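hey m, so remember when u said the tokens were messed up on ur end? i reran from scratch. heres the input so u can diff it against urs
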Amino acid sequence: MTHELRLKTKLYNLLERLDLSYDEAEHALGLYAHNKRFDKDLDTHYNVDDDVIDEDWDEWHPNDL
């Protein structure tokens, strides 16, 4: 089995496990790519290293009050 075939199989298995259609997966990847570009552009605009900003600052935790 070639490396490319293993990657395709892994992607297919992930789609099956998450119960996503191809169109849903394509849309989700597009959103992720857009957010990644936006974050990079924001970091560039404010001249900061990505390591400086905590990307998970807005995560809600059940024990936070």
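this time it looks ok to me. The mean pLDDT is 85. if urs says something different then somethings off w ur setup not the seq
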